[in-house]
Design a protein that fits this description.
- This is UDP-4-amino-4, 6-dideoxy-N-acetyl-beta-L-altrosami ne transaminase.
- It comes from Inconstantimicrobium mannanitabidum.
- The chain has a seven-stranded mixed β-sheet, sandwiched between helices. Strands 7-6-13 form a three-stranded antiparallel β-sheet, with no helix packed on it.
- The chain contains twelve helices and 15 strands.
- By secondary structure, the chain is α/β, with parallel strands linked by helices.
- Helix 5 links the parallel strand 4 and strand 5.
- The protein is globular, with a radius of gyration of 22 Å.
- It starts with 25 loop residues before the first helix and ends with a helix.
- Bound molecules: pyridoxal-5'-phosphate (PLP).
- The site of pyridoxal-5'-phosphate has 14 residues, from helix 3 and helix 4.
Amino acid sequence: MKELAINGGEPIRKTVLSYGRQTIDEDDIQAVADTLRGDYLTTGPKVKAFEEAVAKYVGVKYAVAVSNGTAALHVACLAAGIGKGDEVIVPPITFAASANCVLYCGGIPVFTDIEAATGNIDVSKIEEKITSKTKAIVAVDFTGQSVDIDKIKEIAKKYNLIVIEDGAHSLGSEYKGEKVGTKADLTTFSFHPVKPVTTGEGGMIVTNDEKLYSNLILFRSHGITREESLLVENHGPWYYEQLELGYNYRLPDINCALGLSQLNKIDAFIARRREIVRRYNEAFKDIKEIEIPFEHEYSNSGWHLYVIRLNLQELNVGRKEIFEALQKENIGVNVHYLPVYLHPYYKRIGYKAGLCKESEEYYNRIITLPLFPSMKEQDILDVITSVNKVINYYKK
Ligand SMILES: *Cc1c(COP(=O)(O)O)cnc(C)c1O
């Protein structure tokens, strides 16, 4: 057996393969350059066009572009009316923004454990967390796999809650044959470079609800409107009013030009991601030391992330040693995520370890392997070879 790089052997790769990255072609660059030569750098025709393109792609009435996925979550919470003391159900295995958006509004994130098979919120544990103060559920489509949104909506209907789907990982993913974004009251997307398509920084909220849509528009831009039907007074053609305390969360035309160009390729990106996942699954399915991602019948994931779970009882070392060994082979591994409430900030405001047992156990077992559309054949082989090499060395 080849010596591990961590023990002084030759690494499988000479250069680091990152866990995720953007795929940018000449036509993307051209689209941005064209916008820079035009009349609008910020709110102009590309914003509207990008919003319409995302709405059409997802199959919803309304889409609102904002400056990033975190702003999308914040504005969604504001539009949903989340305020001081309101409780919001949130899963712990997610990026901190999924819970921070609740805190921004003065609300209280109520962490609800995951199902270990997918890392998504365990729908059967939601009802026991609901109190008279519960106002909403933030459901995260972890790794791109949709939550069981029909079941979540059933619960929401029973308790009169708003459902916000954090689809940062799941633009283009499907639930029961429909694109993610058509079912929740509000669904948010992120266009960070590692996400399904990118605008550099960027985000979007989609909804079919006209009232929520008009709230989103207000909160995106200072709470200011020129809409005649909304004005309290009207002093003339120059006149606008601030109706709410909103933010400047606008997404520039420059970014939207990139987004439009990227959106043309999303189906090809996702097809490639699915192909890589199929290759990984095939290569790893019989290795008893690791578990490959599980996908529910109702889901057709776009696969933002490929997360393996280690069967630690089959290994002589922990996750940290496996992670470091893979890193030394120049595989850009990652961990998604530390349960949000274990971050020092959350502990400082009163959350304690032990809150969500499945999530904490999950965290101890997971490693994210590289996955992005422009991965080459050799990159895929390098990941597979490295995983085999490292697991073989450390297995019992
Ligand atoms: C990336 C991400 C966000 C935040 O998106 P940004 O565009 O980086 O602000 C929110 N939630 C999840 C689950 C994410 O992965």
